[in-house]
Design goal:
This protein is an alpha/beta fold. It has seven helices and four strands. It has a four-stranded parallel beta sheet, sandwiched between helices. Helix 3 (53-67) links the parallel strand 1 and strand 2 (75-78). It is globular, with a radius of gyration of 16 Å. The protein starts with a helix and ends with a helix. The mean pLDDT is 96.
Length: 200
């Protein structure tokens, strides 16, 4: 976050949202959307970014804002959690190589995070949302991340809806690899910074 602020010369706001079991996807999305509305009302341009569960929140918030007539200039997603049903059959292919995440634990978290909403509600699983008009997306994903198959679906759905997508896939890389102190992580971090840099 400090690097983004330093290298893009922008103010970075980091929402500190309540985690399970103290909140739900809808409550957190509502809070993030309200925070963005305040910035927009102050004539600030907002670029949105999030990793993992933060990616789910970011995309859900971008969809809500789009429904309100607001298209953000960019939304950057690092290993976002997109479909909390965990039903993508390709997860089974990736699972043996992912040392961090797994379907059983993910389903337990999803059950609580969804609250009173269905798992397929876009506020919980933004992969089920209509992506048309959402604004450009930057997606970073590693091939050893069980979330990777859903990120391919997001890429394909977004492009089919006419949404510009900048795609970065780290071969052999883990969940949120761009945050790790590795060569691939440095490349991913540079991609994130560049995606959030204001256009001149």
């Amino acid at each position: 976050m400090a690097r983004i602020a330093r290298e893009t010369n922008q103010r970075v706001i980091v929402p500190i949202y309540p985690l399970l079991p103290f909140s739900t996807a809808r409550e957190v999305c509502d809070g993030v959307v309200e925070l963005i509305r305040v910035e927009l009302d102050s004539d600030h341009q907002v670029r949105l970014a999030g990793d993992s569960s933060g990616g789910q929140i970011s995309l859900s918030a971008a969809l809500r804002l789009r429904d309100e007539g607001v298209t953000l200039p960019t939304t950057t997603l690092l290993a976002p959690a997109l479909d909390l049903t965990w039903e993508n059959p390709q997860i089974d292919v990736v699972q043996p190589s992912d040392p961090w995440l797994g379907r059983p634990g993910g389903r337990i978290l999803a059950e609580h995070w969804s609250g009173d909403d269905e798992l397929v509600d876009p506020v919980v699983s933004p992969l089920y949302g209509d992506l048309g008009g959402i604004g450009p997306l930057t997606i970073l994903t590693g091939t050893r991340d069980v979330l990777n198959p859903d990120e391919h679906v997001l890429k394909d759905n977004a492009r089919a809806a006419g949404v510009p997508v900048e795609w970065h896939e780290g071969e052999g890389q883990l969940h949120v690899y761009a945050l790790l102190p590795t060569k691939a992580g440095e490349q991913g971090a540079k991609a994130i910074v560049e995606s959030l840099r204001p256009s001149t």
